[in-house]
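Read as chain and fold; for instance:
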Amino acid sequence: MFLALKEMTYSKLRYTLIIGIMFLISLVVFLLSGLANGLSTEFRQVIDQWDAKEIVLSEESNKVLAASQLSMEDLEFVSSNDKSPLGIYSSAIGDSSDKTNITFFGTTTDAFFLPEMTHGEPFKKENEVVISQNLADKGYDIGDTITLGSEETPVKVVGIFPETSYVVTPVMYGSVKVVAELKFGKQMVAQNENFPINAILTNSTTNLDSDHLVGLSTQELIENLPGYSEQSLTLNAMIYFLFVIAAAVIAIFMYVITLQKTAIFGVMKVQGINTWFISKSIIAQSFLVGVFGVVLAAVVTYGLSFVFPAAMPFAIDIKQWLIYGVILIIVSIIGGLFSTITVNKVDPINAIGG
């Protein structure tokens, strides 16, 4: 380690460039990781918060929540100590010049998965809704009236719960009947008390007494969200490729530096310094390059997270960063190992021109 530090101190510019490249690669890894986590959270956050034992959909829905078509009567075919209906309606609210996409979940007032309110109170009437904090941050507050759908159905905001997203949109909860009216029209719902719904959520052991129902776990439902798996796979693949690129870049730089020092290594061998001692110095240099680059990138990425726009989905997972940081340092060491092969082949006589 002493020899490695001595040489890095002597050749500051050379090793600063290598650390700079390692820093840039690590920075991209941490940024992609943060974006992947942010997008993943905004896709699945509300489903995680439901904490449901099982989510029951229609069999022909292909495990997609929005495609599931059930009715209130299907509650009779689900045996569970705690079960609640769920309807889903996607819309945009606000002025024509500044619309906000939202997801409106309809259920009963006693549903087990409803969130705790941070302001106001839970909805109790059909025309009342509660909204997430990220929707409140866009200018909506308790007492405001929001107009929804083509029939311009008014609903009143009575409560605000913590920030929650579903497929990168803010969330609101209200009556399942209002959601059915928004989707199918007031006239259709008025003639039929058996409202259409999308799912039945349970909070205990579930038995299904109908062939057209299928039960999913929370993770199964998340993996079948449209675009979720494809997006995660793409971003993770980019991160994995960056690991390979980091190893290749460090290997190339260390190899070039080793070639430039062939004569010095020859002299060291003539003086009786063995190959393993020289190789340890190269491995130590690769380790230090990795550590400096990764730590600097983590600090800079953390600082950048405070200046990113609020609309940018970015979430830091310290555990995942630690794993990626260790992997980057390991691939840096692997890159340096290739240069030890060159050191082993150095002939002292040829190296010093004998």
The chain has a mean pLDDT of 87. The first helix runs from residue 2 to 10.
